[in-house]
């Protein structure tokens, strides 16, 4: 936890704020991506949100190979454009300032709740029109608890609908703090098999399922999101188990089945991270249809995003 | 609303076309016949020579009469509607070159960037000696138009009074005109009314030629169905040649005949159809009640009309659908649906359709129809905010009932229906070029042409941004005023030298006044003041303030030198200029300047009365001029390179809006451009995959509603094709704002790997219809 001890007072580490988000809860939303996660999912499409410090990102297709970055680096961490010694890099940002084509950028900015609230307020007319609001996502939004609470309270003071997008692998106390200010929780059930869950996300799903059951007894709404990945969880057995589990949670208003897409893969390269999945990852249309029917048969409101 | 059209869509397969329409689609007639141009030219010329003593309007009416009697008509056995508008557009010589020496030429004498004939004629009309102030202004304007300091497109942009025509017919209108001759009028006015009567009789005779031709064809046709239909056409043509339309088919047929007649008379420049669904619905409703028509048959007639519009090619004929009537009831009737579906079936760029939208009264069924049409990727229909625009037209002087009936001409210009001549494309100023002139002392960088400033100044003596900004605003007014003055002179010349007696016959109150539409004959005779490149100008003003006066990283002279060199050797300065905040991201830095430039235009326009007693309306749309104007504009302080496109309409500069559509809309609203009288364009990009999901379609609707509820005037959607994505792949810097919303999230296209980009390109291609 040393990373967070270095945090400036009452600021949160945010990797991105995406306006006009239309797939992160009801309506038109502004999604705030918190940086730092306690899971390591193989397919994570926001790998820049996993680490708990600001990180240097290199976008190769914007690079003109001018070499100014290497000259600007005080730590000698850039041998040549795109060749970054992550061990030496202190994420000081000197290279970013020197990079005219913006091929280098730092992901992760320490922001105050006020910074974010000012930005969120501007889209209130769209929230009101669409029944939308602000989604706090990540990374794992609940990890930055104090910051999250300050934000949630600020949003509620402004009458803004709130969603917390979480992997739910935390002690239940985290939820208890957020509950009074959260209109809907967006929670992933990535895998029902604990063994596979451990393999692909580095954590057990036991606390996750337990938290969902507990939230099921609270006055809040839940949306369950399940990514479907070929060769991982796109099997009839997984779908069956998840559907049966969800059907027993009374306040689940929607299950969103998200077919795997490759759009996050480029980010791994930009962060010098390896990508661990391969093969036929996108599930077939037939399978998606079957999965959807299965949830429907269990009496669950379900949508498929492919 | 109980639309049968909604039921037609229930199978989810979308609208279909009949075998007859399929045949017409596959066998398009060739309407670009050069012989027609020569015939038209020679006929008018002969008439002018034979009638030297006649007034100019009478000469034009007689030339028109002789031409309509001789010109080719085209009717085929398979035609659903009679009529064929030959494409005079690019090849018109006479009557517009009159009275200059005849030169047989294929070239169109009034191209967009050449107003030399108009300027010469205006000088002649006003008797301006070379070297006089009037002649100087016209010469300045002519050079400006040629080098895209100004855009000028003459004439057209008008709507006949179709409800009146369809319900009463030419004969009844003529009786009214005859009666007018008995009222007190000047000789010139009576002469004009006689010319208009003559022209309208010529049109009636012309329609009867179609009746005869249909009869002749019917007699020689074997097939009973074809024969019956040709007989129907013959009867309809005979009826509407002078009488009113008595059913839906006749109404559409008369609408087209009138169109064709307008095309034969004048440069067919953005002649528009007005509120087609509103005035056709009563005919359809009556036929439906009598059991003589059904939805499919009426839709086939509309389809045939759409194909006729499409045959005339790029002449910007606008059809307005949807919107409130005079009593505040929102119209989205069966004909509205037929129009949207016809656009969807043919995916042609003609006719343009414009949809008057209401965030209160567009219901789910109609919204689905709109989305289905948007998804074809043609950009149709653009949506216009009735709640704001009706009020804007009232402010411009239209009576409440007339404002409620506003309709689009050309691209997005809002005029009254059948009573308004507002010369909507008379002047568009290249605003960033004015900024360039401050640095060059009035020299256009890319051409070396001189356009003298009102107050030349030494850049070194400018001490603060306020001083610079005041100077800019003063010069902006200077160039706008030059344009206004020249356009007024040209306008006056048109009505006197190039009258359109038939067009005027169909527009209120030309006959009652005995005046041509261009001479103040219409009820509303407004003028317009358009601008282009708002975002570039605003971003540049902010960049000057920051770079020169706040960050002090360059002097004005150094910045000018960097612009001269297109930033070669100024890489770091260029990068800094590019990194400054830009309009369209919902930050006040650059945004405020857009609002203030529009404010300067209001200062010039709001209280100005033109020579025809009309008012001025502001236009914040650029057709495709932003690209051409960009080719004539050097590098700008916002970092835009020489020759690159300027910003489109009221939108951000390409590649500089990085916060998404809600931020763009907030910026546009902040600039208060929604309530301008001559129209505004906000173009948002979406890719087709995004709009396939219903929840995304709903989000789009909410986006539109939130924008309009807060005063937005217009919005249109640019559905991105794979060609754009490939361009972005090759030039990521120019497309850094390009967001693809394909699946569960949005991504900046240029941040994706090549493989993923290729996948999205392939998918977009697949999504094409």
Structural features, described:
Chain A is of the alpha/beta class and 306 residues long. Chain A has helices at 2-5, 68-72, 94-98, 113-121, 124-130, 145-157, 172-178, 194-201, 206-215, 236-247, 265-270, 285-297; strands spanning 11-21, 29-34, 55-58, 78-80, 83-84, 104-107, 109-112, 133-137, 161-166, 184-188, 221-228, 252-259, 302-305. Chain A has twelve helices and 13 strands. In chain A, α10 (236-247) links the parallel β11 (221-228) and β12 (252-259). In chain A, α4 (113-121) runs parallel beside α6 and α10 (236-247) runs parallel beside α12 (285-297). The longest helix of chain A is centred in the middle third of the chain and has 13 residues, at 145-157. With 769 residues, chain B is α/β, with parallel strands linked by helices. In chain B, the strands form five sheets. A six-stranded mixed sheet of chain B has the order 4-5-6-7-14-13. Chain B is globular, with a radius of gyration of 27 Å. Residues 1-13, 90-109 and 765-769 of chain B have low confidence and may be disordered. The A-B interface holds A 18-23, 27-28, 45, 59, 61-62, 100-102, 122-123, 125-126, 128-130, 132, 258-259, 261-263, 265-267, 269-270, 303, 305-306 and B 571-572, 574-575, 586, 659-663, 666, 693, 695-696, 698-699, 702-703, 705-706, 709-710, 732-733, 736, 741-747, 750-756, 759.
Main beta sheet of chain A: strand number and arrangement?
A: 9 strands, mixed
How much is the average pLDDT of chain A? 93
SS content category of chain A: alpha/beta
Distance between the termini of chain B: 29 Å
Q: Percent of residues of chain B in helical segments?
A: 40-55%
SSE order and pairing:
The complex is a heterodimer of chains A (306) and B (769).
Chain A: H1 2-5, E1 11-21, E2 29-34, E3 55-58, H2 68-72, E4 78-80, E5 83-84, H3 94-98, E6 104-107, E7 109-112, H4 113-121, H5 124-130, E8 133-137, H6 145-157, E9 161-166, H7 172-178, E10 184-188, H8 194-201, H9 206-215, E11 221-228, H10 236-247, E12 252-259, H11 265-270, H12 285-297, E13 302-305
Parallel strand pairs in A: 2-8, 8-9, 9-10, 10-11, 11-12, 12-13
Antiparallel strand pairs in A: 1-2, 1-7, 3-6, 4-5
Helix pairs in contact in A: 4-6, 10-12
Chain B: H1 4-8, H2 19-26, H3 34-50, H4 56-70, H5 116-126, H6 133-146, E1 150-151, E2 158-159, H7 162-181, H8 187-219, H9 224-242, H10 248-265, E3 271-272, E4 274-275, H11 276-290, H12 295-311, E5 318-322, H13 334-346, E6 352-357, H14 364-374, E7 383-385, H15 386-395, H16 400-404, E8 407-409, E9 413-415, E10 428-430, H17 431-440, H18 465-497, H19 501-505, H20 510-513, E11 527-532, H21 534-550, H22 556-564, H23 571-579, H24 588-605, E12 616-619, H25 625-631, H26 661-670, E13 683-686, H27 694-709, E14 714-719, H28 722-730, E15 739-741, E16 746-748, H29 754-767
């Amino acid at each position: 936890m040393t990373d967070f001890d270095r945090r400036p007072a009452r600021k949160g580490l945010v990797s991105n704020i995406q306006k006009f988000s239309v797939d992160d809860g009801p309506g038109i939303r502004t999604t705030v991506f918190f940086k730092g996660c306690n899971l390591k999912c193989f397919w994570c499409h926001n790998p820049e949100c996993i680490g708990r410090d600001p990180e240097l990102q290199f976008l190769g297709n914007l690079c003109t190979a001018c070499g100014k970055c290497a000259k600007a680096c005080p730590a000698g961490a850039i041998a040549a454009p795109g060749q970054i010694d992550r061990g030496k890099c202190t994420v000081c940002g000197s290279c970013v300032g020197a990079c005219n084509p913006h091929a280098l950028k730092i992901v992760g900015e320490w922001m105050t709740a006020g910074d974010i609230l000012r930005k969120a307020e501007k889209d209130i007319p769209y929230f009101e029109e669409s029944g939308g609001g602000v989604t706090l996502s990540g990374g794992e939004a609940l990890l930055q608890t104090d910051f999250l609470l300050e934000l949630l309270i600020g949003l509620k003071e402004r009458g803004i609908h709130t969603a917390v997008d979480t992997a739910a692998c935390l002690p239940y106390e985290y939820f208890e703090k957020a509950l009074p200010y959260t209109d809907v929780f967006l929670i992933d059930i990535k895998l029902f098999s604990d063994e596979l869950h451990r393999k692909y996300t580095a954590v057990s799903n036991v606390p996750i399922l337990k938290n969902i059951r507990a939230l099921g007894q609270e006055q809040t709404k839940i949306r369950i999101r399940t990514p479907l990945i070929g060769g991982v969880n796109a099997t009839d057995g997984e779908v069956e188990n998840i559907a049966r589990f969800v059907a027993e949670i009374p306040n689940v208003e929607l299950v969103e089945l998200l077919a795997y897409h490759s759009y996050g893969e480029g980010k791994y390269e930009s962060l010098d991270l390896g990508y661990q999945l391969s093969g036929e990852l996108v599930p077939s249309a037939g399978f998606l249809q079957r999965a959807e029917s299965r949830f429907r048969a269990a009496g669950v409101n379900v949508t498929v995003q492919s | 609303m109980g639309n049968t059209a909604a039921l037609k869509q229930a199978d989810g397969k979308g609208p279909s076309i009949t075998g007859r329409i399929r045949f017409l689609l596959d066998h398009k007639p060739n309407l670009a016949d050069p012989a027609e141009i020569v015939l038209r030219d020679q006929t008018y010329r002969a008439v002018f020579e034979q009638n030297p003593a006649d007034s100019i309007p009478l000469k034009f009416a007689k030339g028109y009469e002789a031409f309509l009697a001789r010109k080719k008509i085209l009717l085929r056995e398979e035609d659903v509607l009679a009529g064929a508008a030959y494409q005079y557009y690019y090849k018109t010589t006479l009557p517009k070159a009159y009275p200059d020496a005849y030169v047989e030429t294929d070239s169109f004498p009034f191209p967009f960037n050449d107003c030399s004939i108009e300027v010469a004629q205006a000088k002649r009309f006003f008797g301006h000696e070379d070297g006089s102030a009037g002649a100087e202004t016209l010469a300045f304007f002519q050079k400006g138009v040629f080098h895209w300091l100004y855009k000028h497109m003459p004439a057209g942009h008008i709507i006949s009074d179709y409800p009146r025509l369809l319900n009463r017919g030419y004969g009844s209108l003529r009786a009214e005109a005859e009666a007018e001759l008995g009222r007190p009028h000047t000789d010139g006015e009576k002469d004009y009314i006689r010319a208009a009567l003559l022209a309208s009789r010529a049109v009636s005779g012309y329609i009867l030629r179609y009746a005869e031709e249909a009869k002749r064809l019917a007699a020689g046709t074997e097939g009973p169905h074809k024969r019956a239909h040709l007989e129907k056409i013959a009867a309809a043509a005979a009826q509407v040649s002078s009488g009113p339309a008595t059913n839906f088919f006749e109404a559409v047929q008369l609408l087209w005949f009138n169109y064709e007649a307008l095309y034969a008379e004048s440069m067919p420049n953005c002649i528009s159809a007005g509120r087609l669904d509103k005035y056709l619905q009563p005919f359809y409703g009556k036929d439906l009640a009598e059991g003589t028509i059904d939805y499919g048959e009426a839709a086939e007639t509309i389809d045939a009309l759409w194909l006729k519009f499409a045959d005339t090619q790029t002449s910007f004929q606008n059809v307005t659908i949807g919107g409130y009537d005079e009593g505040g009831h929102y119209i989205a009737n069966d004909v509205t649906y037929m129009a949207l579906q016809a656009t969807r079936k043919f995916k042609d760029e003609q006719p343009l359709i414009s949809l008057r939208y209401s965030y209160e009264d567009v219901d789910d069924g109609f919204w689905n129809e709109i989305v289905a049409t948007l998804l074809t990727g043609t950009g149709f229909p653009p949506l216009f905010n009735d709640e704001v625009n009706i009020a804007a037209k009232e402010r411009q002087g239209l009576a409440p009932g007339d404002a409620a009936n506003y309709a689009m001409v050309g691209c997005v210009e809002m005029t009254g229906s059948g009573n308004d001549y507002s010369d909507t494309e008379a002047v568009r100023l290249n605003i960033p070029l004015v900024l360039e002139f401050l640095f060059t002392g009035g020299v256009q960088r890319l051409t070396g042409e001189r356009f003298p400033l009102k107050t030349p100044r030494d850049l070194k003596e400018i001490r603060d941004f306020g001083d610079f900004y005041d100077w800019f605003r003063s010069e902006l007014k200077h160039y706008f005023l030059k344009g206004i003055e020249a356009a007024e002179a040209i306008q006056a010349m048109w009505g006197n030298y190039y009258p359109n007696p038939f067009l005027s016959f169909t527009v209120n109150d030309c006959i009652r006044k005995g005046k041509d539409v261009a001479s103040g004959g219409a009820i509303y005779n407004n003028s317009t003041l358009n601008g282009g490149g708002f975002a570039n100008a605003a971003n540049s003003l902010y960049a000057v303030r920051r770079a020169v006066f706040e960050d002090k990283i360059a002097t004005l002279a150094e910045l000018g030198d960097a612009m001269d060199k297109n930033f070669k050797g100024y890489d770091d300065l260029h990068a800094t200029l590019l990194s400054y905040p830009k309009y369209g991201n919902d930050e006040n830095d650059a945004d405020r300047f857009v609002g203030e430039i529009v404010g300067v235009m209001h200062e010039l326009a709001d209280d100005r009365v033109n020579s025809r007693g009309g008012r001025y309306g502001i236009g914040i749309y650029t057709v495709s001029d932003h690209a051409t104007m960009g080719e004539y504009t050097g590098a700008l302080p916002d970092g835009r390179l020489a020759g690159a496109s300027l910003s489109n309409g009221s939108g951000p500069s390409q590649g500089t809006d990085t916060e998404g559509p809600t931020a763009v809309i907030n910026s546009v609203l902040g600039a208060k451009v929604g309530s301008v009288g001559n129209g505004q364009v906000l173009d948002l990009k979406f890719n087709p995959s995004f709009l396939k999901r219903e929840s995304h379609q709903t989000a789009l609707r909410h986006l539109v509603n939130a924008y309009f509820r807060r005063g937005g005037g217009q919005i249109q959607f640019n559905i991105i094709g794979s060609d754009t994505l490939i361009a972005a792949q090759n030039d990521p810097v120019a497309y850094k704002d390009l967001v693809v919303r394909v699946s569960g999230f949005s991504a900046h296209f240029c941040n994706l790997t090549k493989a993923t980009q290729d996948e999205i390109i392939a998918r977009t291609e697949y999504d094409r219809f």
